[in-house]
Design brief:
171 residues; mainly alpha; 6 helices
Amino acid sequence: MILCLIIEELFIFYGFFTLNTLEKKAKQLLSYMDTIVQHFVVEQTNMNQSSLECPMSLNKHELRIIDVLGQKDYCTMSEIAEQIKLAVSTLTGIIDSMVEKKIVSRERAAHDRRMVIVKLDEQGAKVFEMHREAKGKISHGILTSLDEDEQKTILELFEKISNKILAMDKD
């Protein structure tokens, strides 16, 4: 009986200890993620402000839209809204601004006039390439600071994390 109580106490302690350690690790991971995300945001802002080819100021939603459109020939408003997790009504105002800046064009689909198709204009395509190049430099810089085994590990972990996030999005 006493042995059972001791085991139970150890289990409670170990469970608490594990949770406490997991909470600490989660906070540490969040700190690292904040650092990485902040670096990407600063790089995007620097790219955005220093480019002579792109004199207009772009916000984070516009950059996300450019990223979505840069990966396809065109998207519907609904597809963009779903990708960047914004309501279509919110997206409409952002797209209006981007049309004025001559970054994107918008037209009605020939087969269904209710659908609005959005495409990158020439200026938008240039911004997409610059943005992709800046992100590539950051990724390259991260990987070159690691040895071959660490590179393999980080890529496997990011793949696992990405797959988990995608699976959560589907739920």
